[in-house]
Write a structure and sequence with these properties.
Elements: H1 3-6, H2 14-34, H3 39-50, E1 58-61, H4 67-74, E2 80-84, H5 87-96, E3 102-104, E4 121-124, H6 136-144, E5 150-156, H7 157-160, H8 163-170, E6 178-188, E7 193-201
Parallel strand pairs: 1-2, 1-4, 2-3, 4-5
Antiparallel strand pairs: 5-7, 6-7
Helix pairs in contact: 2-5, 3-4
InterPro entries: SAM-dependent_MTases_sf
GO molecular function, one term: methyltransferase activity
Keywords: Methyltransferase, Transferase
Length: about 200
């Protein structure tokens, strides 16, 4: 295992996270494939269970190299747009070609130039939590989405160990949002890491 995956979950500034993923971009797909990366497929299958219209537009936020977009395409979805803070990752996603459009965004203005309310679903596959985007992105996505839209996300073991992640999931109980599904399963079995795939309907 290379140092990129070993170092992916360490605490660092957002600038350091972006730089890490820029450096990792060219070898990312091969490394996570070697370790059995299962979460994109699991997220796509979970969304498909709750969104029967495969032509409905999806925003794949934190799309990385496009692995998640390819998983949504494999599940039958046809209108997938991507966004990411890493130019290096987006360059790989452009080559893969799973998305209709790709947006480069910044942590300070996460949805600049994107009409989030026009999407039937927003996905954050492996995006929120340890070594990636802050947990506040969870709130930002829900606030930006349109009523009735679906939010599919994954939280790996490192992220679930953080009380902030658990607090956000627990806060859904009395909220206007509906927790449709929360399923634990494989994330990167090659390193013994699991994740929880969550689907929420925005109130």
């Amino acid at each position: 295992m290379s140092g990129f995956l070993e170092d992916a979950y360490g605490a660092r500034t957002q600038e350091a996270v972006n730089a890490h993923y820029d450096r990792w971009a060219e070898s990312y797909d091969a490394e996570v494939a070697e370790n059995g990366y299962a979460t994109p497929r699991r997220c796509a299958e979970a969304l498909a269970r709750h969104l029967p219209d495969r032509a409905a537009p999806i925003l794949d936020y934190g799309c990385g190299t496009g692995l998640s977009g390819a998983a949504f395409r494999a599940a039958g979805f046809t209108a997938i747009d991507g966004a990411d803070v890493s130019e290096g990752m987006l360059a790989q996603a452009r080559v893969r070609g799973a998305h209709r459009t790709l947006h480069h965004v910044s942590p300070e203005a996460p949805f600049e130039g994107i009409d989030v309310r026009s999407y039937a679903a927003v996905a954050c596959v492996g995006v929120i939590g340890a070594g990636a985007a802050p947990f506040t992105l969870f709130d930002d996505v829900l606030a930006a989405m349109g009523s009735g839209a679906l939010f599919v996300l994954s939280l790996n073991d490192h992220s679930l160990a953080d009380p902030e992640a658990r607090a956000r999931l627990d806060s859904l109980a009395p909220s206007p949002h509906t927790l449709l599904e929360a399923e634990d399963g494989e994330h990167l079995p090659g390193i013994g890491l699991r994740s929880r795939v969550v689907v929420i309907r925005r109130g």
